[in-house]
Design goal:
By secondary structure, this protein is α+β, with helices and mostly antiparallel strands. The protein has helices spanning 25-29, 51-57, 89-94, 103-111, 113-131, 135-142; strands spanning 6-8, 14-16, 21-23, 79-82, 98-101.
């Protein structure tokens, strides 16, 4: 257990926040201000999951029913590609604008602007149909119109 007043500085020296000075480890052992950090199992970082990690685990698609095969060639998928990537990546995951791609088509998707524009249009149309949203509502969420 560590004293909550003890900090290690970048130069590897120990600093006591209570005494407000650099100290030696022996001084800390005999300190009258020593306070221990108590951590329960519920506060451990390893048990926490982020919202983003949960979204990525639970991905779904409004564009295809088969997330196991590449939408272009039909081979086994290697990647789940967010149609709206970059700043809209989390919105793309949240609203199911995700397509499965094999490695070669995933690389090509990022290189080929025509493919990207095609899937942007398809995804926007499907989003508006699936969620019963208008163009203005789509723009409010994704900050752009692809139609």
């Amino acid at each position: 257990m560590n004293c909550k007043n003890l900090k290690q500085k970048l130069n590897r020296k120990l600093y006591c926040k209570k005494l407000k000075r650099d100290i030696k480890i022996s001084e800390c052992s005999n300190c009258k201000y020593k306070e221990y950090l108590i951590r329960s199992n519920s506060t451990k970082l390893k048990n926490r999951t982020s919202k983003q990690a949960k979204l990525e685990r639970d991905r779904f698609s409004i564009l295809t029913n088969d997330l196991d095969h590449c939408v272009i060639c039909g081979s086994k998928k290697d990647h789940l590609h967010e149609v709206f990537f970059g700043r809209n990546r989390l919105n793309s995951i949240k609203y199911g604008c995700v397509i499965p791609l094999c490695s070669s088509h995933h690389i090509e998707m990022h290189r080929n602007k025509e493919w990207q524009e095609y899937w942007h249009v398809i995804a926007q149309k499907r989003f508006m149909e699936y969620y019963h949203k208008s163009i203005d509502e789509f723009i409010e969420i994704f900050k752009i119109n692809y139609l």
